[in-house]
Amino acid sequence: MSMIKVPLRTTCPPSCKCGSQVPKDWVHSTCQSKAFIDCTGDISCQKGCMNIFIKNVGFQCQKGTGYQDYKTATQFLMAFAAALQSSGYDLKDEIDIQFITNLNINIVKKWYC
Fold first, then answer.
1. What span, in angstroms and rounded, lies between the C-alpha atoms of 108 and 96?
2. Which of 29-38, 56-65, 72-81, 83-92 is most confident?
3. Rounded to an integer, what distance in angstroms lies between the CA atom of residue 20 and that of residue 54?
4. How far, in whole angstroms, is CA 105 from its chain's centroid?
5. How far is 3 from 6, CA to CA, in rounded Å?
6. Higher pLDDT, 84 or 105
7. What is the per-residue DSSP string for 65-86?
8. Could you count the other beta carbons within 10 Å of the beta carbon of residue 91?
9. Which residues on neighbouring strands pair with residue 43, listed in sequence order?
10. Cα–Cα distance between 69 and 42 in angstroms, integer?
């Protein structure tokens, strides 16, 4: 069974100068293909040229300058949860619930190790 990946959709990190709270889909800056996150917290792109833990990813929005990152696991998880909520995504399926549960556990474990 292959690992489930979902599109990486979050607000900008709090340190971004744009201050936007509108969730956006992120792309890999090098190849401009859509970015995805798996339940371990690893980010990959559609073309497969990136595979990196969320803590080590820099985000650059259209309005901001430079790359910004999430400083804590909580910052990222809250931004991800807000994006899920704003999209109207409903966690009804057991697979969806397991994905979110594993994502939360794995990000906290990996972030602080």
1. 19
2. 72-81
3. 19
4. 14
5. 10
6. 105
7. -S-B--SSHHHHHHHHHHHHHH
8. 13
9. 37, 52
10. 14
